[in-house]
Design goal:
With about 325 residues, the chain is α/β, with parallel strands linked by helices. It has eleven helices and eight strands. Helices cover about 50% and strands about 15% of the residues. Helix 1 links the parallel strand 1 and strand 2. The longest helix has about 35 residues. It starts with a strand and ends with a helix.
Amino acid sequence: MTDTISIVLPVFNEEAGIKTTIDTLENYVAKQPEDYELIFVDDGSKDKSVDIIKSELEHNDNIKLVEFSRNFGHQIAITAGLQYTSGDAVVVMDADLQDPPEVIPSMIKKWHEGYDIVYGKRKQRDGESFFKKFTAAMFYRTFKKLATIDMPLDTGDFRLMNRKAVTQMQRLHEQDPFVRGQVTWIGFKQTSVEYHRHERIAGETKYPLSKMIKLALDGITSFSMKPLQLVSFFSVLPLVGGLIYLIYLIAVGGFTAPTVGITLMLFSVGLVFLSLGIFGSYLGRVLDQVNDRPRFIVRDTVGFQERQSSIHRLETRQRVSR
């Protein structure tokens, strides 16, 4: 019996390179023993990405499209794509070919060896600035120290999951999902394959600094309570700092009430605002969950319209079950 592999590809303003991506993937799947479906999830593109995908879909039966009503975010696009898959295993990869399809056979081999999840581990990253590489490395290592899960270093969302793992992923319903953290959290038998991450074939990165920071905050606040625990530590700092400074002023003979008062006030105010910011990050996530809005709205689907109602029912059941 031939395996079916679903490939989920989030798309956001990829007009410059999406045709090359489709041609490359079609050339790849034509040579493979498995059956493939290519599920493009358009995350509210403003360019001609959707038009190009629809044009290619007309003469490629294995291409399918999920079109969002607006931009909901990369992680939500992955989450939605998983719900529309029907393959025995699912591969998640970016639509800019930085994740090369040539790695997929190695992932499939590991899957056939008995692994439920096979993630791509980057051994080299081309076309990225030193700043992005440095901040990414720092985030993964900081996350590993803070989080309650042991997420592998230097990995993104490029990975293969078998149907059992995908089913468990569909049971999770965070409003701001951190997918790579969720995949680690569900457990199962996991391993990695190393690969060389290529430079983008065209266009610009869809993860500027602001989105990188949001992704990092979503990850940390989803899987760690340690920042909240730091707030208790912050409350002690003004007292300890004030006592040390008071001793210093007495020792050097510079003790005056205004000097001590102003110093302690500035220090305390800074810590209060920092603590409020940490609380706000967690409360914001709670508010999103309490609002209980759908995580995404689909404007249209092409290639599997019969599945749209079942996906809607799944989202509804998840909300009711909460």
